[in-house]
Amino acid sequence: MAQAATEVPPPQALMMQLLFGKQVCYSLSGVARLGVADHMDAQPRPVDEIAAKAGAHAASLYRVMRMLASLGVFKESPSRQFALTPVGEVLKTDAPGSLRYLAMMFGEEFSVRAYQHVAECLRTGGDGVTEAFGQDIWRVLAEHPDQCETFQRAMTNSTSNSAEAIVEAYDFSGIERIADVGGGHGLLLASILRRFPNLKGVLFDRPEVVSTLPASALADYDGRVSVEAGSFFESVPDGCDAYIMKSIIHDWSDEYCQTILRLMREKLPKSGRVLVCEMVVPDEPGPSPAKMLDIEMLVMTVGGKERTAQEFADLFASSGLRVNRIVPTSRPTSVIEALPI
From its phi and psi, is residue 177 left (phi > 0), alpha (psi between -120 and 50) or beta? Predict the structure, then answer.
């Protein structure tokens, strides 16, 4: 007997699935902000109990959790009870690979208001943050410490999901002193120093970032690490034979990136290297995390973008460097290694 052909939903239904992404994103951001998952585990619990612990309106929380359960974030049981799935587990604050603060960030004012201006971004090539606030994302965050803190924690969430993959894929053993430029709260640098005990490091970021550095962040590496504040458009740390940047280059236009890279090139020894940890946009068509993240760069930054391998090669060449190799990791992030020309 012939098997019935799989019925393809009409285009309108497929489009509605895409458009309802808004409800999914903001619902995830809301339950993350309330810390809902922190009051849950694999055991089904009544939504009234969860709501009381999270400070939520039970009936409203039920409606959101019911929807998210249909997508696999929670598991719904009879009598309005919910348990965490492995997907929902990553919304817990202290879960390995937690994405709680990343989910919160997507619901922050700077992000929400920026995306209201997507059409203007498409018309002009400008960014949504400047359209909404009259200044770029970095100035907005500097003026809103609470949102800046969420942003930094979100970046730490992101790094926690790729740091170990980076140190597993790339051999740092030939480096004596490495500077993590734009290193946030130091998670990537700590991962490198932990794996390579003879290596020394410098954590370098803006004053408002390093001033919020938790005391415990690099406590285990006393004597091997220093912290410096500054702007990577004006200077980078001295005395390093390697510079590493994760999710920095994609924030800026080629012109701004050339300034950063040329500062590094001027201070590198002949045997030095620059390591850029970012996604690489594939040349072939089809879904890609890099293509999704590229839209975040379009809306949130002034000229930032995800780049193809050729675009990275061109950018480095214009800055006195050459791409030596691109090292893939087990995550979407790759390590792009550049050497002085």
Answer: beta
Strand, coil or helix: 18:
helix
Query: What is the per-residue pLDDT for 2?
Result: 54
Neighbours of 47 (CB within 10 A): 23
Domain of 123 in residue numbering reads as 109-153
Write out the E strands in the chain. Answer: 45-46, 74-77, 81-84, 177-181, 200-205, 225-229, 242-246, 273-281, 307-308, 321-328, 333-340
- Give the model's pLDDT for residue 211: 87
> Residue 42 sits in a domain of what CATH number?
1.10.10.10
Asked if residues 224 and 251 have their Cβ atoms less than 8 Å apart, the reply is no
Say which amino acid occupies 233: F
> In 10 A of CB 243, how many CB atoms?
27
Residue in 39, 57, 117, 250 annotated catalytic: 250
Residue 67 lies in a domain: yes
Neighbours of 72 (CB within 10 A): 11
**Whether 246 contacts 215, CB under 8 Å:** no
Cβ atoms within 10 Å, residue 231? 13
Question: In the chain, what's the furthest Cα-to-Cα distance?
Answer: 74
> Do 248 and 261 reside in the same domain of the chain?
yes
CA dihedral sign of residues 291, 280, 310, 183: positive
Is residue 102, in this structure, part of any structural domain at all?
Answer: no
* pLDDT exceeds 50 at position 1: no
Tell me, yes or no, if 57 is annotated catalytic. Answer: no
Number of structural domains, the chain? 3
Question: What are 114-155's pLDDT values in tens digits?
Answer: 999 999 999 999 999 999 999 999 999 989 999 999 998 998
pLDDT bin (cut points 50, 70, 90) of residue 167 is very high
Q: Are residues 249 and 305 in the same domain?
A: yes
Task: In whole angstroms, give the CA distance from residue 129 to residue 135.
Answer: 7
Dihedral-angle region of residue 97 (phi above 0 means left; psi in -120 to 50 means alpha; beta otherwise): left
Question: What's the pLDDT score for residue 22?
Answer: 96
